[in-house]
Amino acid sequence: MSLFRIFVNQLEEDDEDMATSKKVITREEWEKKLNAVKLRKEDMNTLVMNFLVTEGYVEAAEKFQRESGTKPEIDLATITDRMAVKKAVQNGNVEDAIEKVNDLNPEILDTNPELFFHLQQQRLIELIRQGRTEEALEFAQEELAPRGEENQAFLEELEKTVALLVFEDASTCPVKELLDISHRLKTASEVNAAILTSQSHEKDPKLPSLLKMLIWAQNQLDEKAVYPHINDLSTGQLEDPSV
Question: Where does the record place the CTLH domain (predicted)?
């Protein structure tokens, strides 16, 4: 039984009571339900390790492995290589990132044309950012235009990117967000996810999804009952409701 199951059970109980007023659950009652939940320490440790590995906290993962004895799903040495790729994209060194990806596993880009296009698109953006206009136009024509001819979605993205060259002041360009650091981060996350998938690992950590499920369950139960909440997920402390 999980914490999520407590919320589901409570919702089912409340569905049986069609009274208009909300059911009030005291702290004592709620804590009794929580204390009845049996969680294995090994399962909690696995969740933590999954988060550390997926997000690339290699030193923390190594330390956690030593202290808890929890075995990671993949070789921790591969995290360093993956983070080097991600950092290269975040810093705008896309050519270096592509080389590193190919060193890890050439099939990643060979079998993922969308990812490769987005990396090449980011290369074009970096050329434009640096003011290397002629080189950017040549790169777009030779490397990206042929892919755009084969894929309408790629062509539309290419046209948006080249539009950056039309405006002397990028801040007035309708697609100026392509020059934001957030676009680098988006591309870096896409590469990170592809590498994880190639290693037969989930591309997203499980822990955030479970916390989102917890929030969703609380929101559902709010419509039917008044009970102690976990408002601060970082502490997990129960807070008495205002009635």
Answer: 78-135
